[in-house]
Give the backbone structure.
Amino acid sequence: MAASAVRADSTVLTGARVVLPTGTVDGGRISVEGTKIVAAAPDSAPVRDLSGHWVVPGFVDIHNHGGGGASFTSGSAEDVLRGVQTHREHGTTTLVASTVTGEMDFLARRAGFLAELVEQGDLAGIHFEGPFISPCRKGAHGEKLLRDPDPADVRRLVDAARGTARMVTLATELPGGIDSVRLLADHGVIAAIGHTDATYEQTVEAIEAGATVATHLFNAMPPLGHRAPGPIAALLEDERVTVELINDGTHLHPAALELAFHRAGAHRVAFITDAMDAAGFGDGRYQLGPLAVDVTDGVARLVDGGSIAGSTLTLDTAFRRAAIVDRLPVEDIVRAISANPAKLLGMDDTIGSLEPGKDADLVVLDEDFTLVGVMRKGEWVIDPK
């Protein structure tokens, strides 16, 4: 399966099981002209028979720190693009670059750098994960660099991103947390609750203030308790909140994933990778911000302390696991991996589903849900020959 850049100026894909917003169509037909899906291609358009395959919308990852050996927090433009390309080859046609905790001056400069890649169309936006998180639930973030979410500091990063900031993860129980949530909501930036030690009541307050996403639900937050339900219960029960899930078999037990889908519903789940440099690259020693990470058998852990340090997940693996291991309906997986994150980003008018007028972003899977083809904006990233 080799990567390519074959332009599909006009083509018709036939014979596959096509997952549409209205359901799955056996022997479906998708017409592509230029960069868009169209109602009908010209009669002269070449026809590609994809019988025995699935065709689903391109994947949308709203929480991703890198891949292909490259870090979105510290890599050069060439490095970042290599990471983006690695994830494209695994079906992610839309990607938000996530940063990790660092000095404020560095993060502000990094925001301006990443904003250029958003403006030229390589990234869909920037997600700041840290430094406004709890030292009690810091995970793979440098504790000495953490700070309370002062609205002035949050505003500084948003401004540095020049309109490309999509999401900021906050421990909203910290001083300034609620005011920062309101500030983000006022600026059209997603306030995500994560790396938090909040109580149930504090989490409810943050949701009422405008928080709408749970950063990798279950991870880096107090566990669900019967007397102290904590943030998990509050995030699962509120219809305004979308919950991120890392479906790699390491971050979540299948029962936890099932609980999230059962309680929140497929319309409120977003599959993410939380990937770091090793995604699509391999085991070894890596650097995540200021912290050293060892990746062994595909699992990333801090050298000092052994905490899980992001993942090496790609979304095609998350899709296949959801179908084969978790036995979720394919339509629910598509909502979680494409439609829901596209809607969160405010981009569902152009991506997230296979409909005329939208970008020709799609993934071809075989009967075993293994990726065999990727198209982005009408161009084959991987041609399913």
Notes: Residues 59-344 form a domain with the TIM Barrel fold (CATH 3.20.20.140). Confidence is low (pLDDT under 50) at residues 1-7. The longest strand covers residues 92-99. The radius of gyration is 20 Å.
